[in-house]
Every structure is written in C-alpha cells, then in structure tokens.
Write a structure and sequence with these properties.
The structure is a single chain. By secondary structure, the chain is an alpha/beta fold. It has 2 domains: 124 residues, Rossmann fold; 90 residues, OB fold (Dihydrolipoamide Acetyltransferase, E2P), CATH 2.40.50.1020. The chain has 7 helices and 15 strands. The strands form 4 sheets. Strands 2-1-3-4-5 form a 5-stranded parallel beta sheet, sandwiched between helices. The protein has a 5-stranded antiparallel beta sheet with strand order 10-9-8-12-11. The longest helix has 23 residues. The N and C termini lie far apart (46 Å).
C-alpha cells in the first residue's frame, strides 16, 4: 500500500483526483493540502510515499515547496501547464498529469511509480536506517527557473558557499540552502567523504588520486574538478580506501 498526499489549491481538483484513485486500491490518500505551507506540514507528519502536486498555487509554487524538503518523495505533478511549458522546468518527476486528469494517464503514472519502487527496493533491503539518505534518494534542486530531481548517487561534489552548498552533477552546479555540516550528518559516509572544510566528495566519482602538500592528497573527479584532502582527512581517507 502506497500512502499519498494531494496538494492542490482547487478543492474540486482534489476531490476529482480522490475519486479517480478509488480505482487503485494500492494507493491510499492519507491527506490533502490547499497550499505549499499545508503541504509541507502534511509531508512532515504523514511521510507519504507519493505526492500529487499542483505547480501553480497562491503563495509558494509546488517547486518552491519541494526545495524545502530534505528528501523528496515520489512526485506526480498535476497541472494546467501544457507540455511545452513543462519542458522548461527540466524536472525529472515520475510524471506530469494535465488537468482535467484522464484515468488512462493516471494509470500510466502509477505504473511508473511501481517500476521506480522496484528499482529502489534493493537500497531499502540493505537495511539503511531511515534518517540517512541513500544513493537512491533524490533531492530537489531549484536554481532560478530551472529545477531538477537529482539522485544522490549522481552528485559528485558538494561545495560550501556560506550557508549554501553548490551541488555538482552532470554539467550543472546549482546552489541549495543547506550547510555542508547539515548535509554531512545525513549522507552515507561510506559513499560521501568530507575531504576538507569546504568539500564533500562522492567516493565513486574519483578518477585520480595524487599525493599533495604536507601529507595531503589531491583528488580528481569525473567532472574534472580537483579537490584537496586535508592532511588530517587524508589519514582517514587512506584507511577507508586501504591505500
């Protein structure tokens, strides 16, 4: 059974979607919200597996709301935007449903949910404790008008920029409002290593390791970035990597 929350400022749209979901007994609607603030509260208290999320709402948009989550549940957008407008967002959501929602499109979207869950089963089977973010967890990143869902396993580097962290994945480097210390507490230390005061690196994205000044190390990542490992952290790094 998948727990779902519907977040949409139109009561009629919420009711219509709830009615359509009665045909899918594997989905239980555990809550609904009329705006982003209510949506955040419901996600916090109910921990849903899936949210149906409207993009345009009074106050904060659906995208704005997602940036405030530590880790995003599966998201199916329900929106009046046409598909050309949606392409501008670059968000890798499970699916987009155009309003009014058609039963066939809803069935397709829920099929994608099942496939995504099967892929992620392996990660949860590894007995990961719920507070830690795994490689399979996805975070939502918004930079100006551009938005992404990013699997943590695809992030090669986090760089501290004041109270923000720059996230390096693919050819992108957007900022998120999270300190490096807050990120370090949630990330799996077997995969994400605190190289120095300013950087956390994905150990699986290291291409080259070289000795550096004063007993430190210099790492070169797949994206070409070079990161210095401080002398103190180099000792820990060598133990972890059996160097």
């Amino acid at each position: 059974m998948q727990k779902a929350v519907i977040i949409d400022d139109e009561r009629l749209a919420r009711n219509e979607l709830k009615k359509l979901l009665l045909d899918f007994p594997e989905i239980e609607v555990v809550g609904e919200a009329a705006n982003a603030a209510e949506g955040l509260e419901k996600i916090e208290s109910l921990s849903p597996d899936l949210i149906f999320l409207d993009i345009q709402m009074p106050g904060k948009t659906g995208f704005d709301m997602l940036t405030e989550l530590d880790s995003a549940p599966h998201v199916i957008f329900t929106t009046a935007y046409d598909e050309y407008a949606l392409k501008a967002f670059e968000v890798n959501a499970l699916d987009y449903l155009m309003k009014p929602v058609e039963p066939k499109r809803l069935a397709d979207a829920l099929q994608k949910l099942q496939q995504a869950d099967e892929k992620e089963m392996a990660a949860s089977m590894a007995g990961i404790n719920r507070g830690m973010l795994t490689e399979q967890d996805q975070v939502f990143v918004k930079d100006g008008e551009r938005c992404w869902f990013v699997k943590l396993g695809e992030v090669r580097l986090f760089e501290s920029v004041g109270n923000y962290a720059k996230v390096f994945f693919g050819t992108y480097k957007p900022l998120i409002l999270k300190s490096l210390n807050a990120l370090e507490e949630r990330l799996d230390e077997k995969i994400f290593f605190r190289a120095n005061r300013k950087h956390i690196v994905n150990l699986r994205m290291i291409e080259k390791i070289e000795p550096y000044f004063n007993g430190g190390l210099l790492l070169e990542l797949h994206g070409g970035e070079k990161v210095e490992v401080s002398r103190r952290q180099a000792v820990k790094f060598k133990e972890m990597m059996s160097l």
